Amino acid sequence: xxxxxxxxxxxxxxxxxxxxxxxxxxxxxxxxxxxxxxxxxxxxxxxxxxxxxxxxxxxxxxxxxxxxxxxxxxxxxxxxxxxxxxxxxxxxxxxxxxxxxxxxxxxxxxxxxxxxxxxxxxxxxxxxxxxxxxxxxxxxxxxxxxxxxxxxxxxxxxxxxxxxxxxxxxxxxxxxxxxxxxxxxxxxxxxxxxxxxxxxxxxxxxxxxxxxxxxxxxxxxxxxxxxxxxxxxxxxxxxxxxxxxxxxxxxxxxxxxxxxxxxxxxxxxxxxxxxxxxxxxxxxxxxxxxxxxxxxx
Length: 297
What we know:
The chain has 297 residues and is of the alpha+beta class. The protein is 42% helix and 20% strand. The protein has a domain at 30-60 and 116-287: 2-Layer Sandwich (VC0802-like), CATH 3.30.2130.30.
């Protein structure tokens, strides 16, 4: 009595296992990674799809109209051939083509939707939304976060989405390609003339998923070299009180880079939607009187 049943050696099988992701991202892809509750990837994609489509119109509405007007002015109307010059078979083919075009008026809508396209990564707890111009991922995500951190905004739009991470651009997982991408993405943030006199405090954060191609510290050291350019710019590494943070997202054979400002870790809670609203709830509770708190119990 009281003896515990001997282990059958299958304890490891009872542990939670994460599947290896089967999706992939092409080099040159820009977009937004989002982490979410496990096994709720589909629901998180639906939530983000609705939120992103709404914010797309709010943030880039004027630019979308300009693109639409440019498309309309660039359309060339082809004069139909005179029926007398066509054979019976050619007339039939023309009529079928006209019917197909008339019954499929979705070209403009498709163009809008293509600005935001969710890529199937088949990676647990992670979804990815591919973006195209005029969307700038860092700008797009930051404006969404500006609205979320607003104390007057009490509405939580998502249930399963946790953290958003913008990616300016991406490349294949080779150090040569990463250095080329770093020059492109980091130069506007770190290589202005004023940075030769007074630099920024910065840090590099690398996240790896299904990725073991390049050691983490090799990526960090090489990006630091790109930022400072052998002392030409007066930037300094500061892991706590940085002015700018370089985000590096490694997924399988794809490496994406973006830059966020120093408030990312403080006011913006690392772009974590859940933590932003948890902080709001604490502030609301702190502002209530004991009588109000008791009434909620």
